[in-house]
């Protein structure tokens, strides 16, 4: 594409009050009218909350632990990012149209923007939530390397944007609370990144139970191994190194950076931590959601 530079580092555009990539905003009517199928499995997360990890686990489950089958293509083709549009490069809606069922569908949309067809068809959904401080840090590094985002500015500036919801896909606080409330009425398995890190095997078993699948121990162990951070980091079909440098610059920061809980301690100053915690209490007041910011 000749005008590659015109695609990247552009300001976000509001869609129903949520800041999204300009290209998503332009194609919004197509995304809103996306037709889910009853056997679709939706993977929903706020960005940088373990999306690729849970996607790889689920693709391994769908392929009975066959790691070679899961190397058939890059993760973003195996589990298309429904609302993503990069003109001349990718359209999640188009990718999904051409996929056979059962499909794994990825979204970062807040609950109120999810296409209605998912609710109408009573699709099963998996939501993964990660503590806000680790998300903010991971998102800051991701903004630097993934050039569809606007420039992040300094860490201090980015943290302020994160706290005020002026980042792509909007407020983390509203996102995690919105999906948490919705699970009362729909088939949503709500998982926590920290729990998955602490006991990944237990996480896989929860997924299998939710999907009503039985798997022998040795296959579960295979899935456990192939979805571990160290193995995925070396796997080109999972680590996004197949993306062009103009889209994602891994020399700035690798897509799979650390994959740990508590890394925020290496980034936040004491003053930032105190300000963040005070703001967090206000924004999460009244919610039954509880997060661990380290394990």
TrEMBL record:
Task: List the GO cellular component terms.
Answer: cytoplasm
Q: Which residues form the Sulfotransferase domain?
A: 38-287
Gene Ontology MF term list = aryl sulfotransferase activity
UniProt-listed InterPro entries: P-loop_NTPase, Sulfotransferase_dom
- Known EC number(s)? 2.8.2.-
Alphabetically ordered keywords of this record: Cytoplasm, Transferase
Task: Output the superkingdom of the source species.
Answer: Eukaryota
Coiled coil spans = none
Principal subcellular localisation of the protein:
cytoplasm
One Pfam family linked to the record: Sulfotransfer_1
Specify whether Transferase is a keyword of the entry. yes
Biological process according to GO: sulfate assimilation; sulfation
Where is the protein found, in the record's own terms? Cytoplasm
Family in the record: Belongs to the sulfotransferase 1 family.
- This protein's name: Sulfotransferase
Q: Which gene encodes it?
A: LOC105883075
């Amino acid at each position: 594409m000749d005008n590659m530079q015109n695609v990247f580092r552009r300001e976000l555009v509001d869609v129903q009050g949520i800041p999204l990539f300009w290209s998503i905003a332009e194609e919004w009517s197509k995304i809103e009218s996306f037709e889910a199928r009853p056997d679709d499995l939706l993977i929903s997360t706020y960005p940088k909350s373990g999306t690729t990890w849970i996607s790889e686990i689920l693709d391994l489950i769908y392929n009975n632990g066959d790691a070679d089958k899961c190397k058939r293509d890059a993760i973003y083709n195996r589990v298309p990012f429904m609302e993503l549009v990069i003109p001349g490069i990718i359209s999640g809606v188009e990718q999904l149209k051409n996929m056979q069922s059962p499909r794994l569908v990825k979204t970062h949309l807040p609950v109120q923007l999810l296409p209605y067809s998912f609710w109408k068809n009573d699709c099963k959904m998996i939501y993964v939530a990660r503590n806000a401080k680790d998300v903010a840090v991971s998102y800051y590094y991701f903004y630097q390397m993934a050039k569809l985002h606007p420039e992040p500015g300094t860490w201090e500036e980015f943290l302020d944007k994160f706290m005020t919801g002026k980042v792509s896909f909007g407020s983390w606080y509203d996102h995690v609370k919105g999906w948490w409330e919705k699970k009362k009425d729909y088939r949503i398995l709500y998982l926590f990144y920290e729990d998955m890190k602490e006991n990944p095997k237990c996480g896989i078993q929860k997924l299998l139970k939710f999907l009503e699948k039985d798997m022998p121990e040795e296959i579960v162990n295979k899935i456990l191994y192939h979805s571990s951070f160290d193995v995925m980091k070396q796997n080109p079909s999972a680590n996004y190194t197949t993306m062009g440098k103009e889209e994602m610059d891994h020399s700035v920061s690798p897509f799979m950076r650390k994959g740990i809980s508590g890394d925020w301690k290496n980034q936040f100053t004491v003053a930032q931590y105190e300000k963040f915690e005070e703001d967090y209490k206000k924004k999460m007041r009244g919610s039954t959601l509880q997060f661990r910011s380290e394990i």
